[in-house]
Design goal:
heterodimer, A: 4-stranded mixed sheet, two-stranded antiparallel sheet, 6 strands, 20% strand, globular, B: alpha+beta, Nuclear Transport Factor 2, Chain: A, 7 strands
Chain lengths: 129, 256
């Protein structure tokens, strides 16, 4: 899978990067976080900027679709519900607090969110804190 | 007040390791000891990166613990309460145990409740497949031999390459470690074929050696940063890692 710029992401854009692009996260996100099956690492990619690859278990890498011409052309991007679950998975994997105050959850499909959370073994009550 | 969590994180920073990985390392070691004491002997066989780190001396830290065994999931399930208690005792914070199952994959999680907003999860997973070689026994219970760990990694690499078009760079390090440091006997073709059957993996004939050689040395070093202490990483010949792992992988093209 290669982008229009020839950048091979070996995964899909997700986490806070995808949530920001989908308008679900109010934070200004400066890097591109990619869910991958390879390994955690960071690199500066010409034409893209800071890219952080975050390794997820193979069976949790799903829920992505082609990016738009506006956001991430040529790359694949997680749907907002999956991006949120990927972010919650990352937070509990590294002991970070989820950015609950900055999330705009009104537009999310709650049933889809719950289905992803069940598949990934996540507890969504963290969003109610 | 400096907590046990703070202490582990501070020492991790001093040796160039990611703090959350070091916390998981300390927790994983305690949990592996707990499984060794709780599970029926031989029911849950420690495998993968955690086995290499704790039982075989690899400096690479692992962010989870994996087990094999025909009924390894049930064995871990029976240890859930003991695992949560061990985590609480180690770090002095509440810990919970939860489980999901997907076919033969058993996914347990020990969740440390760090504070009201943060938790840290350590996966404790099992795949209900038998260990194929007589395991070693020690402080961390029954543990796969380096040769069997290499066979698992070779099969996993073929699977990941077939399904994702990429391989896990840390697996290259592990294959190099078992070959160069442990002088492990390369897995037999029969062992690798048995593993592929255990994981229901169809043969693809993919050139695993070429895929390994395509990994850039910068990418490999970046993937190991924070997992391998600075001193060991600085002395590491990453080209040798790729070459040795690639040579091992390319020997099984006719099997996988």
């Amino acid at each position: 899978m290669s982008s229009d710029a020839g950048f091979d992401p070996r995964g899909y854009v997700s986490f806070d990067t995808a949530l920001s692009a989908h308008g679900v996260l109010d934070h200004l996100v400066h890097g591109v976080r990619i869910a991958t099956g390879t390994a955690d690492r960071e690199a500066i990619v010409p034409g893209v900027g800071l890219v952080e690859w975050i390794a997820l278990p193979d069976d949790l890498l799903y829920g992505d679709a082609p990016g738009t011409a506006l956001d991430f052309p040529g790359l694949r991007v997680a749907a907002p519900e999956k991006a949120l679950c990927d972010l919650l998975w990352l937070c509990e994997s590294r002991g970070f607090a989820p950015p609950v105050e900055s999330l705009r959850l009104e537009t999310l499909d709650r049933a889809l969110l719950a289905a992803h959370a069940a598949r990934m073994g996540l507890d969504l009550r963290v969003l109610d804190r | 007040m400096v907590t046990r969590l703070d202490d582990v994180a501070d020492r991790a920073r001093a040796r160039g390791v990611r703090p959350w990985i070091a916390v998981k390392e300390a927790l994983a070691g305690r949990l592996a000891e707990t499984v060794a004491a709780c599970a029926p002997p031989g029911a849950a066989v420690l495998q993968g990166g955690a086995a290499l780190h704790f039982a075989h001396g690899s400096p690479r830290l692992s962010a989870d613990i994996d087990y094999a065994g025909a009924a390894a999931g049930d064995a871990l399930a029976g240890c859930g309460a003991a695992l949560a208690d061990a985590a609480t005792e180690l770090f002095g914070v509440p810990a919970r145990w939860s489980v999901t199952r997907n076919g033969r994959l058993f996914r347990g999680k020990v969740s440390l409740e760090i504070d009201a907003a943060r938790r840290l999860v350590l996966p404790v997973e099992a795949y209900d497949v038998p260990a194929r070689l007589p395991p070693a026994r020690g402080r961390f219970g029954t543990v796969e031999t380096p040769t069997e760990i290499a066979a698992d990694k070779i099969v996993a690499t073929a699977d990941r390459l077939a399904r994702r078009g990429a391989l896990k760079t840390t697996d290259l390090y592990d294959l190099w470690f078992v070959t160069a440091h442990l002088a492990a006997v390369p897995p037999s073709r029969d062992l690798v074929a048995s593993k592929a059957a255990d994981y229901a993996q169809a043969a693809t004939g993919a050139d695993l050696g070429a895929a390994a050689r395509a990994v850039s040395l910068e990418e490999l070093r970046a993937a190991l940063a924070g997992l391998v202490p600075v001193a060991e990483l600085g002395a590491l010949d990453v080209r040798a890692v790729v070459d040795i792992a690639a040579r091992l992988l390319e020997d099984y093209r006719d099997v996988l």
